[in-house]
Amino acid sequence: MTIKNTEQLRDLLSGVLEKVIEGSVAPNQANAVSNLVGKFMQTVQLDMKYHQMREIMPNMPFLNGTNDSKKIEHDK
């Protein structure tokens, strides 16, 4: 399964939680998935901070589905 957006990521995590509750996934396995997702999201956050510092909109289809990078307009 390829995760292409945040909605699919939430669906994955919710499925893992359901399986933990059912007993078909061990809590330590769910914890490993959760840790990996956290590390993944840290890289997304780093990309966003980089783009913010450069004052450009990031091209992150994972978050918003757009393919356009553009300069951020500031009110002065």
Quick tags:
about 80 residues; mainly alpha; disordered C terminus
Overall, the morphology is elongated
Regions with little confidence, pLDDT below 50 for 5+ residues = 65-76
Helix content: 55-70%
Q: Termini separation (Å)? A: 46 Å
Hey, roughly how much beta strand do the residues contain? under 5%
The run of helices and strands is HHH
Q: What is Rg?
A: 16 Å
Largest sheet: none
- The number of helical segments is 3
Give the helix/strand class: mainly alpha
Number of domains: 1
Average pLDDT, to the nearest integer? Answer: 80
User: How many E-type strands?
Assistant: 0
Folded structure, characterized:
By secondary structure, the chain is an all-alpha fold. It has one domain (6-64). It has 3 helices and no strands. It has helices at residues 6-22, 27-54, 61-64. Helix 1 (6-22) packs antiparallel against helix 2 (27-54). The longest helix has 28 residues, at 27-54. The N and C termini lie far apart (46 Å). Mean pLDDT is 80; it is low at 65-76.
Quick overview of this protein structure:
The chain has 76 residues and is mainly α. Helix content is 64%, strand content 0%. It is elongated.
